[in-house]
Specification:
Length: 173
């Protein structure tokens, strides 16, 4: 079993897997008579294969560290955003896809395990996974609610793969 270090979430470190929503981002545009700063976060990718945006509330139960990841999932036809409410901290485990192609002809049919990364999200921001990013299901560090923006459509879009080598994630420093 490998030990996967828990990294601090930064937009630069998370960029290969997706986007950070909130936290310390660049400047935006002042609106509402200067009382609000609007910062563009990018457009979610939710309309492939006839999909449409779905906004859901996920009520998470705690899944505390230390934790052993045995499998990852991915969604190839749309991005997926997790935004904690009330400052719920969570852990994100991600990996890029390998060079293989799945039965539907989509690239990255298995997680490239050497790209596995674990990030501590302190609850002050959220994340968006790019389509095709392998990730572990939600690992909330206390019970709480998350707003999740994801693709909804007739085509089911969730692949699950077991890791060749499980990954143990320890406590944050």
């Amino acid at each position: 079993m490998r030990l996967l270090p828990l990294q601090t979430l930064t937009p630069e470190a998370f960029a290969p897997y997706g986007d950070v929503l909130g936290g310390t981002l660049g400047a935006g545009v002042l609106i509402n008579a200067g009382t609000t700063e609007k910062i563009a976060l990018g457009s979610p990718d939710l309309q492939q294969a006839g999909g449409k945006p779905a906004l859901n509330l996920y009520r998470a139960m705690p899944n505390l560290l230390p934790f052993t990841a045995l499998e990852l999932e991915r969604h190839c036809l749309g991005s997926q955003s997790f935004i904690p409410l009330s400052g719920v901290p969570f852990v994100v485990i991600v990996a890029l896809g390998d060079a293989s192609v799945n039965a539907q002809g989509l690239p990255g049919a298995a997680p490239q395990e050497e790209t596995l990364a674990a990030f501590w999200v302190d609850g002050s921001c959220g994340v968006t996974f790019k389509p095709g990013t392998w990730h572990h299901p939600l690992l909330a560090q206390r019970a709480g609610d998350f707003v999740v923006l994801e693709r909804q459509g007739a085509t089911v879009d969730c692949e699950i793969k077991k890791l060749v080598e499980p990954a143990m994630i320890g406590m944050p420093a």
